[in-house]
Amino acid sequence: MKAFSFERVSSAQAAAARAAEVQGAKFIAGGTNLVDLMKLGIEAPTHLIDVSGLGLDRIEETGDGGLRIGAMVSNTALSADARIRRDYPVLTRAIAAGASGQLRNKATTGGNLLQRTRCPYFYDTAQACNKRVPGSGCSALTEGAFSRQLGVIGTSDACIATHPSDMAVAMRVLDATVETVTPTGLTRRIPLEEFHLLPGDTPERETALMPGELITAVTLPAPVGGSQRYHKVRDRASYAFALVSVALIRQADGSGRVALGGVAPRPWRLAAADAELPNGAQAVMARLFEGARPTEETQFKITLAERTLAALLLEE
């Protein structure tokens, strides 16, 4: 790990201003992903700004019947909150499916959205990776590469990595909004569907955040009711990232919403696919995977996603 300086600040705006001011600065909260990346030499911040003491650890009710979740609320506290368990059970189930209990105790709501991909070529600094070193190439797309964990939709010729979060998939199906503060003190609200960027030719740009911009909260709209499910399929039941995960909200009339994890660079949901839910899992997946470009090793994910959704629908 390379040497770095460290400071605590007194407000979210001060944190954002310092991050914009100091070249190479990064925020640190729970540190469950960033510290690992620093140890591996993938991240090398010159300065860390601790945002854990800024009072961003509360869950508050909003005027329209929703909830505002502070960016520092731990995954454990969020999944255990009585209002989340009652009104947004898909979120509780998704968080419980992610990581270990120890990690959930430290991981934060804001940090969870900013997790870096678990693509093996991103973590192996001897391999080419456009996300880690822009313009270096993508070893995952070379002949014989191991791509079982990687994406099938929303990818590009520069990157086929997936976003690893379970929590973000549930928040996508709930139409969450990310709240931020900019270095000049302005508040921005970014719909989650616009927060994570597709790789295109610039896979190193993963979110819509501007330099120095700090996540302060995530807002959930008023509860939509319905039956809410989350199922994650992985190689090891005890601890692994998703091969495929499915978040489902289904209303009594058969309508609803579906979001997928483990298949794309961001939680994957399309309005046209939601509209197909009354017609069954095959119709939904036909829409969700329109334009898919699987490798030989990831072709199975399309069938797996369809069968996972079909199983969830049978639980109703």
TrEMBL record:
Alphabetical list of Gene3D superfamilies matching this protein: 3.30.465.10, CO dehydrogenase flavoprotein, C-terminal domain, Uridine Diphospho-n-acetylenolpyruvylglucosamine Reductase, domain 2
UniProt xrefs under InterPro entries: CO_DH_flav_C, CO_DH_flav_C_dom_sf, Diverse_Substr_Oxidored, FAD-bd_PCMH, FAD-bd_PCMH-like_sf, FAD-bd_PCMH_sub1, FAD-bd_PCMH_sub2, Mopterin_DH_FAD-bd
Ranges where the FAD-binding PCMH-type domain occurs: 1-225
GO molecular-function term, one example from the UniProt record: FAD binding
Organism: Alloyangia sp. H15
Keywords recorded for this protein, A-Z: FAD, Flavoprotein
Any Pfam family: FAD_binding_5
Protein name listed in UniProt: Xanthine dehydrogenase family protein subunit M
